[in-house]
Design brief:
The protein has 128 residues and is mainly beta. It has no helices and eleven strands.
Length: 128
Amino acid sequence: QVQLVESGGGLVQAGGSLRLSCAASGRTFSSYVMGWFRQAPGKEREFVAGVSGSGGNTGYRDSVKGRFSISRENAKNTVYLQMNSLKPEDTAVYYCAARYRPLGYAGYFTGRDEYGYWGQGTQVTVSS
């Protein structure tokens, strides 16, 4: 139903910043809980950040707390991931994901299996 396209990845030096964007199709974007995941070579895809349908509730994995910020602009059908103070260990392919919001649910999800829609991914490389 919903199609996701990430953008904004690239090469950045350690300590630098990058903002990723994920554009979604459709006219009911606010009905989707959104998340960001990342996968480094040889590693399992891991949760990075999640945001509720309204944007009012967010969550992060411990290693990015205080450095990354997830947000969304429902009028633009877009979710963002602002990444600051980047470290070489942040290097990975970053994916955005969407899951239709359960009735009455105002939170976010952290599990890979909880999302049904995925973007193609965008490469983030942090040099040291």
